[in-house]
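User: Please fill in residues for this 231-position structure.
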């Protein structure tokens, strides 16, 4: 009877489970440009409804608060996606279809570019391997950085993951998951027990690796190119 009750409780917990809601993860301030960047973790590309709900709340907060209590004159929305196996073109197509109802006409949105004829400026940046390979993820760029920063540790982590995985493991079915695991293991020596976000964070992967990466420059140009109305 006890095991049956536990099975029922476990079933209830599984049925009650929901994907985590989008949340603000970090804030970066550019004082010279009088701009703040709020990083929102959406927890997947299929989170369109909760992301739109968050944006609607932001709209109401800005417009309904008395002058001087919420000192934000305007905002823009930059979306960062992984191309995964479908590629840049299909990723952008899904974005236009999913978010056009909220922002307006997104037909001109392109990778690394902005559109300004919408309710707010909207931009998209899709992580992919190269100009000739439009599939892939952010990890395809992080992995070479980690291998350059920690060559012996990266090689050891790669050998451990590849030498112990089975065909059904996530690291075997998805290349991005494999790279995440290798990078995370490589960084455990200075960040024991920490997740990937910490391994590549301020106290993890050296800043020199990001500074030398063409991707970092491309992403910085994209974000600083926001078409503000007063610019």
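Assistant: Residues filled in for all 231 positions:
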């Amino acid at each position: 009877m006890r095991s049956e009750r536990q099975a029922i409780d476990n079933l209830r917990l599984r049925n009650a489970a929901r994907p985590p809601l989008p949340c603000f993860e970090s804030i970066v301030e550019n004082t010279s440009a009088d701009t703040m960047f709020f990083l929102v973790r959406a927890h997947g590309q299929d989170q369109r409804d909760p992301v739109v709900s968050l944006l609607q709340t932001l709209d109401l907060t800005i417009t309904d608060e008395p002058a001087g209590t919420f000192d934000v004159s305007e905002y823009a929305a930059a979306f960062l996606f992984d191309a995964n196996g479908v590629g840049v073109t299909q990723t952008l197509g899904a974005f236009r279809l999913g978010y056009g109802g909220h922002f307006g006409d997104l037909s001109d949105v392109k990778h690394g570019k902005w559109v300004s004829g919408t309710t707010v400026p909207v931009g998209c940046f899709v992580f992919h391997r190269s100009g000739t390979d439009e599939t892939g993820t952010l990890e395809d760029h992080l992995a070479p950085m980690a291998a350059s920063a920690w060559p012996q540790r990266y090689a050891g982590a790669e050998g451990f993951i590849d030498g112990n995985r089975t065909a059904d493991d996530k690291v075997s079915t998805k290349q991005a998951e494999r790279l995440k695991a290798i990078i995370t293991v490589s960084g455990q020596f200075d960040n024991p027990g920490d997740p990937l976000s910490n391994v590549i964070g301020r106290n993890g992967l050296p800043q020199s690796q990001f500074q030398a990466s063409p991707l970092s420059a491309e992403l910085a140009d994209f974000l600083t190119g926001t078409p503000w109305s007063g610019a």
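For context: Residues 48-64 form the longest helix (17 residues).
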